[in-house]
Amino acid sequence: MKQVCKLILYLFCVAIVLTGCRDKVQSKAETADSLAAVGQRVSRISKSKKKEDMRQYDVADQKRITDFIPKGYKILEKISGDLNKDGLDDCVLIIKATRKDGFVKNSFDKVVDRNRRGIIILFTEKDGYKLASKNYNCFSSENEDGGNYFSPELGVIIKDSKLYLHYYHGRYGYWEYCFRYQNSDFMLIGYEASHDRGPVVLFKTSINFLTGVEYDDENINAYNFNADSDDDSEIDEVFKRTVVKLKKKPLMKLSEIEDFDELRY
Predict the structure, then answer these.
(1) Which phi and psi (to 5°) does residue 207 adopt?
(2) Residue 41 — φ and ψ, nearest 5°?
(3) CA quadruple 140, 138, 67, 78: dihedral sign
(4) Which ranges in the chain belong to alpha helices (H)?
(5) Residue 219 near residue 200 (C-beta atoms within 8 A)
(6) 3-state secondary structure (DSSP) of residue 203
(7) Could you say which of 37, 63, 88, 114 would form a disulfide bridge with 141 (CB–CB 3.0 to 4.6 Å)?
(8) Distance (Å, whole) CA 104 – CA 113
(9) Nearest partner of 113 among 139, 143, 138, judged by Cα
(10) Other Cβ atoms within 10 Å of 234 Cβ, number
(11) pTM of this prediction?
């Protein structure tokens, strides 16, 4: 009888120990699940916070740019490139006035925006942007009347730390102004122009304002063109060069040019 009682007591103790172990294992599992859930929430919060921070940075960057835009103007185009040889991409903004009286009817009785355009150049620095040059109204509208042909299209190019303002005029050629940053502004140092008739160049001009030399290349076969034909591709281009020494003048500043359409040298 005593042995039976001892056996029952032994089995009872074993049952208590096993129950305690099971509860302990379950508690550890619940704790692990709880920690994992907390970790996931922290991860989601971190990712969300990171996205929010990046979004705030983008907005702040945009605000730094728009701080330089005068009231009554909007940004038409943004061009990036290194303009002061510091290895950082600077910012060129083409802006446009938004005056209501700038909207007029053209020759086709269509309302067009004839507000003038301008340019703002910002140097990129570690703590934001720094104004390098500005000219709010130096370009005519992109909606000017081109007569029987479209009006010239303005393009902005950054190459070799120089700023090129390039006017495309389709089959009639192009002209281009080259500026370089020096003496706290962008100075006009070069000019190129090509007067074409379709694929054939009639006359070319190249001016180096640093050396004060102008090169004029005239196609001596220009008068052999058939005015009624659009195909002059078989005519040889033979150029006669004239070199002109210009009078020495101070270099023009981009910020002081009133109207590129009326620019004279």
Answers:
(1) -125, 130
(2) -65, -40
(3) positive
(4) 2-66
(5) yes
(6) strand
(7) 114
(8) 7
(9) 143
(10) 6
(11) 0.73
Length of the chain: 265
> In b/e form, how buried is each residue of 140-179, taking b as 16+ CB within 10 angstroms?
bbbbeeeeeeeebebebebeeebbbbbbebeeebbbbbbb
Express each pLDDT in 172-202 by its tens digit: 999 999 999 999 999 999 999 999 988 889 9
Three-state DSSP class for residue 201: strand
Encoded amino acid at 17, one letter: V
**If residue 175 lies in a helix (H) or strand (E), which one and from where to where?**
strand 173-182
Number of Cβ within 10 Å of residue 48's Cβ equals 10
Q: Measure CA of the first residue to CA of the last residue in the chain; give whole Å.
A: 128
Q: Are strands 111-113 and 117-125 parallel, antiparallel or unpaired?
A: unpaired
Query: Which residues are CB-contacts of 95 (< 8 A; sequence separation ≥ 6)?
Result: 69, 70, 73, 74, 75, 76, 117, 118, 119, 120, 136
Question: Tell me, what's the pLDDT at 265?
Answer: 74
Q: Which residues pair with 173 in a beta bridge?
A: 195
pLDDT range class, residue 232, cuts 50, 70, 90? low
The residue to which tokens 């010239």 are assigned: 152
**Phi, psi torsion values for 213, nearest 5 degrees:** -120, 135
Rounded to the nearest angstrom, the gap between the alpha carbon of residue 258 and the centroid of all alpha carbons in its chain is 24
Give the closest residue to 205 by CA, choosing from 235, 230, 175, 236: 175
Gyration radius of the chain's alpha carbons:
36
Read off the pLDDT of residues 127-183 as tens digits, 9 standing for 90 and up.
Answer: 889 999 999 999 999 999 877 788 899 999 999 999 999 999 999 999 999 999 999
* Dihedral in degrees, nearest 10, Cα atoms 64, 70, 74, 79: -50
DSSP at 252: P
